[in-house]
Amino acid sequence: MAPSVDSSTQARHEITQQDLINQAAAFSSRPGNQMNLSASNAASTSIPSIAEMMGNAINQVNETQMHAGNLGTRYTQGDPDIDLPEVMVAMQKSSVSFQAMSQVRNK
């Protein structure tokens, strides 16, 4: 025998589902949440090659390392605007990005 569903429980589920539908409709109608299909179609037609993607990744890693080195140099020269935690975080980001790039290259 199938368990009976309480009508008040079923009504609560229906209200909840309707609330979710209304919230989703309100969210999608906001100006910043609409997709620009012409821009996404244009972007999908020019897929970068593996060489371009690796080149971009190498450039980003280089920029990260240059930024970390610059912060380290400025800190050691006594720049009052640079904090040690900021330097350490930048150096860790640089190290992690370089290690990730090396792992991708090795695969």
Based on CA inertia axes, which overall geometry fits? flat
Strand segment tally: 0
The unreliable regions are: none
Order of helices and strands: HHHH
Calculate the terminal CA-CA distance, rounded to whole Å: 58 Å
What share of residues is helical? over 70%
Q: Tell me the structural class.
A: mainly alpha
**Biggest sheet record:** none
Beta-strand proportion: under 5%
**Arithmetic mean pLDDT:** 78
Tally the helices: 4
Q: What is the rounded Rg? A: 26 Å
Overall description:
With 107 residues, this protein is mainly α. The protein has a domain at 49-107. It contains 4 helices and no strands. The chain has helices at 7-28, 37-45, 50-76, 84-106. The longest helix is centred in the middle third of the chain and has 27 residues, at 50-76. It starts with 6 loop residues before the first helix and ends with a helix.
Structural topology:
Layout: H1 7-28, H2 37-45, H3 50-76, H4 84-106
Helix pairs in contact: 3-4
